[in-house]
Amino acid sequence: MGIRTSDLRAGIRDVSPLHLGIVPFGLVAGVAAIEQGMSALQAVGFSAIVFAGASQLAMIELLGANAPLAVVLGTAVVINLRMLMYSASIAPHFRSFAARWKTVCSYLLTDQAYAVSIARYGEDRETDLLAYFVGAGASLWVVWVASTLAGTVLGSGLPPEWGLQFAAPLVFLALLVPTLKDRASTTSGLVGGIVAVVALSVPFHLNLMIAAVVGVLAGLAVDTLGGDR
């Protein structure tokens, strides 16, 4: 299967505004890794292989606290369970892909790549789906690894007043807001956010999964009761 370069570039172009949020997120990941005793090579390798910002930060924190390996891996799995929902949603568009390309796409699947791709697929039936997704996902990977490397070089020298700890929430907010198109989705987002904060003390970041389930149920309830009619 060939790659249409125009759609490859379109994927890079459409996701590029989100690169601005990835850079400080990656810097934080690099700094955190160095502060927890990782070498620059380990930190960059970690980012290149795992390629999952939120779970990486949680894993780095747990490794620094000498948590059992099972807890570290379990936490990463729980945080990334949302990828199952993304996969189920986007899989119908990938049916014609060769197995090797499906493997590549599964590795490149992130919140940002999913968000821009699923929006594009719904609007433009002529898009080369593979090229567009690879363009979006691969460009995010490059920015993520490069910004992590920059974070390891800067170490703990980044001024705290830069507020880089807010990078991750801002990235997710940028993805969330455009999806709140009706009462059901808005209810789902608000309820999920509130539950995530209220259940913050639940161990191993399980508050995220609890919030996701409760938010989805709230949205379904509003939709079933005719909240958008």
Report what the structure shows.
This is AzlC family ABC transporter permease. The chain crosses the membrane at residues 15-34, 65-85, 129-150, 162-180, 192-222. Pfam families: AzlC (PF03591). There is one protein chain. This protein is mostly helical and 229 residues long. The chain folds into two domains: 5-166, no CATH class; 180-229, no CATH class. The chain has eleven helices and no strands. The chain has helices spanning 5-35, 40-50, 53-64, 69-79, 82-90, 99-108, 111-123, 129-154, 167-176, 183-198, 206-224. Helix 1 packs antiparallel against helix 7, helix 2 (40-50) runs antiparallel to helix 8 and helix 3 packs antiparallel against helix 4 (69-79). The model has no long low-confidence stretch (mean pLDDT 81).
Proportion of residues in extended strands: under 5%
Unreliable sequence segments: none
> SSE string, helix = H, strand = E?
HHHHHHHHHHH
Structural class: mainly alpha
Helical fraction: over 70%
Largest sheet: none
CA radius of gyration = 18 Å
Subcellular location: Cell membrane
Keywords: Cell membrane, Membrane, Transmembrane, Transmembrane helix, Transport
Transmembrane segments: 15-34, 65-85, 129-150, 162-180, 192-222
Family: Belongs to the AzlC family.
